[in-house]
Amino acid sequence: MRKSYFKSVNIRCNMIVLVVLAIAFTTDMSSSLGTSTSNENSNSVVSQEFFKTHLRLTFNVKKDEILINQKGKDVWIETLNITLFDRIKGDFERIKLADKYFVEIKLSSEGYPEKAATIKLILADKNIDIFSFYKDSDKKYIVDFWENKEIKDTKETKDFKAENKVGVGAGTLIPDEDDNKDKDKDKDKDEKVVTSVVGDKNKSKDKIKRKPASVLPAITEPPIPKPITANIANASIANASIANATVSDVTSGTHSIANKNKKKYRDFRYGAAIVWDYPALIPSINEGINLQNKTAEYFYPISDRQYDKSEKEAHLQLVINLYKKTQYGLMNKAMELYKKKYGEEDNLEVINYLKANSLLRDSFGKKELDKGPEKLAIAMYTTLVDSVKEYDFKRGLLQYLVHYFLKKEDYVQMLQYAKRLYVNSKSNFDEEFEIFSAKMILHGLAGLWQVDSIKNFVSEKSIQSILPKQILLAYEMYALLAQDEHAKVVELFEKNKNYFQKPIHPAIIYNLAESYFRSGKLTESRNYFLEFIAEYNYMNKQSDARLRVALISDLMAENEEKILQLYRDAINLSTDPKIRYEARIRYVGLRIARKYKHEKDDLETLVFLDLNPDEVRLIDNNLKRLLWLVRLRTLISSKQYENALTYLRSIPLETMVSSERRMFEGDGAEIIHGLIGNYYDRGEYGEVVRWWGRYNEIYFDKVPLDLKLIFIVADSYIKLNLKDGLERTIAVLLNNGQNPFRSYPIWIEDEQYERNPKEIIQELRLIELAHAERWNDLYKLNSDILINDPKNIKVHYYQGVASFKLGQYDRAIRHFEEFLINSEQRMPLSSQETSLLFESYAEAIYKGGDVEKFIKTAKAVLADLDRSNSNSNSNSKNKSLDKLHERILYLYIEALASDWKKENFDTMFEAVNDFRTKYKNSICSGRVKYLLGLLKVKKGEPIAGEEIFKELLKDNSVPNYIKELSKTELSTLKIARHNI
């Protein structure tokens, strides 16, 4: 009884966790820093040491003598050695345990020897983790107690624990943690998960169904609250940029002001959006042996013969002795001599058994290609098992064959020999092997997914009398889940939950959690996965459970920082390298693909997607598709549209199911949208039309219409005077008026296009009139629109432009300021429109003669443009805005020079230097240099001014009128130096 008990104990206690081994190494190297508090002597079993980071208990025991396990806040130490228990008890009475880690210690030997003697250490906090490992060299069990401060002290953990008790509906985005107050009302909604494929005309609300992979559920973001617009007096640009948006906000593809009012991250659909089923957990067989160095002799040892009885027995003993000394050549010769002397049939079973064992021994440690002797030995075993009459002999052979085919995962043959073992053990009243073979039969049936056979087998009263109810249900639930009957798994559990007493079988907890996940009951699924992690963190499947917990929190749109921590835990604490890599992909999908604004630390995590040579072999089709998706989306999120398109072309979309392919095609449409948008912002309208024509059928015909993109294309046709192209795009808008428009994916966001096609067509007609410079017709049409739709703010922009072009500067200023004051979050303008707006507005003020207002306005515009350029790389500078900056800066200098106030001299000097540095080839550079000469004279530096005027006279690129002005200034300076 003790032998089998500690065999299972040994398996449960050996936690193969790389982090633990690392901790063991570092703490062992730094043991000199620890302080021992035990009165340790040669007879001590337990010692306590304090380190800077943790507390260590050391048990000087043999490996199989104690079992250490953690359940919640309790650490259990069990032993079947009562003498050892008394010694441990005495040591704990002498040791003063640290209050920081322990509240109480309880020792009990009640029920011994039927039950193990126990020591229960009650931890001071649930956030204290234990890591245990055995040091064979020192014959010591090491138990380290670590306080997880990172989790303990964060508000997110408290929220997480609370949310484990109260479910959040799957597929729901939580805009704020305070919104959890209404969770109880929505508890019944947990089962509903929206899984409609974006772009389909008919939306559905089916439960999650994934076989073998599925696309993420469609999740709707909460509406963005509109900011309170300030009441602006004097409506200057300086005021308008504060109340609404700056120039840099207007020009960015995804505007920063709007993003500040949104979540920091996009929803789940924009990241690692492919989810698949994890394999069911088959109940483990604890009776396994290591077949690397064992033959059937392990179960049926070869006995010595009565060699003094006869010469024949003495000869057979010689054969056995040679076998034991591994002298197989001499053994075979002795066998042949024995057969010649006593006949082929005499003791044939023993001889063949020895020969099979020797062949099997000879195959140990050899590569798969050299496994011929092993196969021959197994064939001899299968022949022997049919001829052997002695029960113990037959049982040993059958037991080995069952283990052998179990290791090979050949469930057909394993099941065949397990059945024979069951029949033989039952007929010989061997209860121990009757139980063993019954478990093996169940294991074989489960491995072959024979649900009906399992049901019939477990329904037999003889089986129910020898196997616990939990084991029977565990196998039945496994077989059901392996066939994707996840609803039946839940039903079976609910029907029999009264039979379950803790600790519940690990396969039951895991398979139930996975069944709830596949059913879309995410809260229930997470609770059972967490229970599995808490109870069975030594099992390899804890890796799957950890990642499922993180994924569920992600699907339920909880706090992103908390979800990132859960993914980090899955990376750091998982023992399965395949799960670790999936966690890395999902981590990058959230931190980069779904994040609106990237920091340097975010981009550094891209290295998580790289594979080392050992990991390449782990990549299956699911991980491959997930990796493709996340790599593509990190490029899109970083606005690297050219690289994203190149990468997308390399992905074999034709091999994917339609739902996944449509997702990649949707991203492809947004990539082309981004490229077209960049050309449009740079005023390269021919490229816009070319890219649209090239990729329209490849991507855009396969996804719902994108209103912003169609507007850009139509506007480009107008700028190119391509009337037919414009009418075709307007026809597309009219024909698709009743069809669904683009709602996912939208990587390039702009609220202005949340409009109907009729409004867009109306604006295109306005643009047509502006492009044709029909300013009177434009102003009249705008007036008619404002009468019918006074809330249409953008019409004021067109009114302002028309008024400016007609020379009505006061009227232009009023319309521009009306537009600036009432534009919410950001102004709905392209970069060209933005440039025209600020240039026309500033020049209208300048030409109107209000110098003070112009200086204030120009200063604000220049500051915004400088900020916009500082946030852009050299490859993404906007030409139209660069020209705007040049024009406003020049007018700003002229305005400062209009009255030559001393308090403006330094400001003007900075502006002039800025202009001469940035715009050396400007047509205004001569005029600006002339003003610099005047400024030097005004500041009392006539010699410096005179040098500038002389340089202007020598410069052939300077216009003649500037040279004439310079001559006048030089003459004036010369006269000023002489008295008449």
Give a short overview.
By secondary structure, the protein is α+β, with helices and mostly antiparallel strands. A hairpin with a 4-residue loop joins strand 8 (128-135) and strand 9.
Account of the protein in words:
With 980 residues, this protein is of the alpha+beta class. Helix content is 57%, strand content 6%. The protein is built from 43 helices and 11 strands. It has a 5-stranded antiparallel sheet with strand order 1-2-3-9-8, with helices on both faces. A 4-stranded antiparallel sheet has the order 4-5-7-6. Helix 15 packs parallel to helix 18 and helix 37 runs antiparallel to helix 38. The relative contact order is 0.06. The N terminus is likely disordered.
How would you describe this structure in keywords?
980 residues, disordered N terminus, 57% helix, 6% strand, five-stranded antiparallel sheet
As residue ranges, the low-confidence spans are: 1-40, 150-261
Strand coverage percent: 5-15%
Spatial strand arrangement across the major sheet? 1-2-3-9-8
What is the total tally of β strands?
11
Helical proportion, percent range = 55-70%
- The rounded Rg comes to 41 Å
Give the rounded overall mean pLDDT: 77
Number of helices: 43
